[in-house]
């Protein structure tokens, strides 16, 4: 079933939730309803019934029903009957409560079980969707907001759904049972006005519940947005601790955080006040209705038992109304949370998987850009009419001033974004027709800021190819000079590195990342400033490894250092989104002023570095 957008009708959204997540739990839910029915009937009907019909017998006010008396006489002597009746009646109370308690427990247990499964699947779906959605989607949101959706919103949704599920079955059934008893009792004791007044009062509760619900909804939205801001601030702050300290931003960060916490807490406080206001309002209304029943009962000769039974039935009517009010409000809040998740689940994939992917078996690595135009933001072109053919195995350096479009060129080759015009082809196949799996297998990437995970160095390298053996991992590590720093540590390749690569220098992280590329051995290799964080000795060593790795692979190097440029067969010079020169170093040095300037600046820079 197609995922509805947050703007779809509630009916569509509920149908989607039912078909995609809830239906699988149908059996558990049906059992939950069954037990809910038993719990409701024992409370709403059973207890008032005992008040009116059982206790008067015990207290000797009413005779035993004939059938029961005949039954008991078969087993007990006449003089024992009052005692037996008393015991039986006394035993009935815990028995009824036991049935109610066990049925209510099973109801909650089964609903919770189903609810947790539903939430688990929903959470996984949102997380998986975030993996599929293109970079462009991620760039549109603050990371903290997405984290907040996956963690907090699903958590709220989980507790909201449990509140709803716990009450949505049992309370209406209790209400129906109690109402049935009330109608019968009121008609039998000719107390129709009591019934009518209670119906009017119960109806009055509805607009109050709705009003409270919409107030809570507003506060809930404020609170969710506040929580997103807080998560974003914490996430941003923790990942930029070095800069926070370097620029003395601690106080400013604390102030921002405090402001956000206060805003969120105020919204949360107001939401709690709203939700708590509902209970006393409904209790006051129900007390008015009960007082009227008392007045009418006394003035129209109602017996104490009749009145007590009606009062109990009234309690079992208003209690579910009160709880259903909470359920209604919770339902509204839950829909808002569902909307925030549907926002992710239904987000348009701007780089969708092809319906019939063209297989890319044993790719050679030939790359072709055909008259490519691209813009991140409409009417703001970043690549203009880029038309270039790179035969398999060629090493190509991309050079050009900052912002000229080199990374964007690579982004399109990896299909992180789709071209606006023209096409990007690998081995003659448009990347839009290739499955994500084939595409990622064809391209290896060593990025400027390699991502490290909180695990061992060995496992970090293995991310290049999950099924690689330890030997293959060590070989790749050796080729990328990872050995040099693993050998200095007792744990070697088993050394755990911190989240984000803490414990490794920038250069060491790059070596791990290069080892991943060695391990992956993809036909197309992208080196994005791959040697930027290396000192000159390491750079020279890694450069030799890269030269080795690049052999037989189509390699694109975004290079600022002339040592990297030197390894290239061919250089593409970018300027304002166009390729303005294309050729070997010698050709370009002679023909392109821009290239000559860039190269000379590099030489000067490298000379200064060497001197230092
Ligand atoms: N995600 C994005 N959204 C909007 N504009 C972007 C985005 N990424 C890059 N740009 C813009 O596109 C243009 C080209 O950027 P690109 O990163 O391709 O340049 P570059 O040549 O790799 O620069 P550098 O050498 O500084 O890394 C720049 O003007 C940049 O501001």
Structure description:
It comes from Akkermansia glycaniphila. Residues 367-601 form the ABC transporter domain. The protein is of the alpha/beta class. The protein has helices spanning 10-22, 26-58, 66-73, 81-132, 135-140, 143-168, 170-188, 192-239, 241-246, 250-299, 304-345, 406-413, 436-442, 457-462, 470-479, 483-486, 506-520, 536-550, 562-566, 585-591, 593-611, and strands spanning 367-375, 381-390, 395-399, 421-426, 429-430, 443-446, 524-528, 554-558, 570-575, 578-583. Helices cover 65% and strands 9% of the residues. It has a 6-stranded mixed sheet, sandwiched between helices. Strand 7, helix 18 and strand 8 form a beta-alpha-beta unit. Helix 2 runs antiparallel to helix 11 (304-345) and helix 10 packs antiparallel against helix 11. The two termini are 64 Å apart. Adenosine-5'-triphosphate (ATP) binds next to helix 12.
Task: Tell me which ligands are bound.
Answer: adenosine-5'-triphosphate
CATH class identity of the largest domain:
Mainly Alpha
Terminal-residue CA separation: 64 Å
The number of domains: 2
Discrete helix count: 21
Beta strands, count: 10
Protein name: Abc transporter transmembrane region
Domain ABC transporter: 367-601
Transmembrane segments: 29-51, 86-111, 168-187, 193-213, 267-295
Domain ABC transmembrane type-1: 31-327
């Amino acid at each position: 079933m197609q995922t509805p957008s947050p703007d779809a009708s509630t009916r569509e959204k509920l149908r989607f939730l039912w078909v995609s997540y809830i239906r699988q739990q149908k059996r558990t839910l049906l059992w939950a309803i069954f037990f809910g029915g038993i719990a409701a009937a024992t409370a709403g009907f059973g207890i008032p019934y005992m008040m009116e019909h059982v206790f008067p017998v015990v207290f000797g006010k009413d005779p035993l029903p004939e059938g029961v008396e005949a039954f008991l006489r078969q087993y007990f002597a006449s003089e024992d009957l009052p005692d037996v009746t008393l015991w039986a009646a006394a035993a009935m109370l815990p028995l009824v409560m036991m049935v109610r308690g066990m049925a209510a427990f099973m109801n909650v247990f089964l609903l919770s079980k189903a609810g947790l499964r539903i939430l688990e699947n929903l959470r996984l779906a949102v997380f998986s969707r975030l993996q599929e959605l293109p970079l462009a989607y991620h760039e549109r949101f603050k990371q903290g907001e997405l984290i907040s959706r996956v963690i907090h919103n699903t958590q709220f949704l989980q507790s909201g759904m449990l509140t709803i599920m716990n009450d949505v079955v049992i309370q209406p059934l209790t209400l129906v049972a109690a109402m049935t008893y009330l109608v019968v009792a009121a008609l039998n004791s000719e107390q129709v006005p009591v019934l009518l007044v209670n119906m009017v009062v119960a109806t009055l509760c509805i607009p109050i519940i709705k009003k409270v619900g919409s107030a809570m909804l507003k506060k809930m939205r404020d609170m969710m947005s506040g929580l997103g801001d807080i998560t974003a601030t914490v996430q941003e702050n923790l990942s930029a601790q070095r800069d926070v300290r370097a620029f003395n931003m601690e106080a400013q960060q604390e102030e921002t955080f405090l402001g956000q916490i206060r805003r969120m807490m105020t919204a949360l406080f107001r939401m709690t006040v709203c939700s708590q206001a509902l209970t006393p309002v409904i209790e006051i209304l129900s007390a008015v209705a009960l007082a009227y029943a008392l007045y009418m009962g006394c003035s129209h000769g109602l017996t104490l038992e009749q009145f007590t039974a009606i009062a109990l039935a009234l309690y079992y009517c208003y209690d579910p109304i009160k709880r259903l009010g909470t359920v209604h409000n919770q339902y509204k809040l839950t829909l808002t949370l569902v909307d925030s998740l549907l926002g992710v689940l239904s987000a348009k994939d701007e780089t969708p998987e092809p319906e019939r992917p063209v297989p890319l078996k044993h790719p050679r690595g030939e790359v072709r850009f055909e008259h490519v135009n691209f813009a991140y933001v409409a009417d703001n072109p970043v690549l203009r009419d880029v038309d270039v053919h790179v035969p398999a195995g060629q090493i190509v350096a991309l050079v050009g001033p900052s912002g000229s479009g080199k990374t964007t060129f690579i982004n399109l080759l990896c299909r992180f974004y789709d071209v606006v015009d023209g096409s990007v082809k690998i081995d003659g196949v448009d990347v839009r027709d290739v499955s994500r799996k084939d595409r990622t297998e064809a391209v290896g990437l060593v990025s400027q800021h390699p991502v490290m995970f909180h695990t061992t160095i060995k496992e970090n390298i293995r991310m290049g190819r999950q099924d690689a053996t330890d030997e293959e991992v060590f070989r790749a590590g050796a080729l990328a000079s990872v050995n040099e720093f693993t050998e200095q540590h007792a744990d070697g390749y088993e050394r755990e590195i911190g989240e984000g690569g803490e414990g490794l220098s920038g250069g060491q992280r790059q070596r791990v990342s290069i080892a991943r590329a060695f391990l992956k051995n993809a036909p197309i290799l992208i080196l994005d400033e791959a040697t930027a964080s290396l000192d000159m000795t390491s750079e020279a060593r890694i450069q030799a490894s890269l030269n080795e790795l690049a052999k037989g692979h189509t390699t694109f190097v975004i290079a600022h250092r002339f040592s990297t440029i030197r390894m290239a067969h061919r250089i593409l010079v970018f300027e304002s989104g166009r390729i303005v020169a294309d050729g070997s170093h010698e050709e370009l040095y002679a023909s392109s002023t821009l290239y000559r300037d860039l190269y000379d600046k590099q030489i000067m820079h490298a000379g200064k570095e060497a001197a230092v």
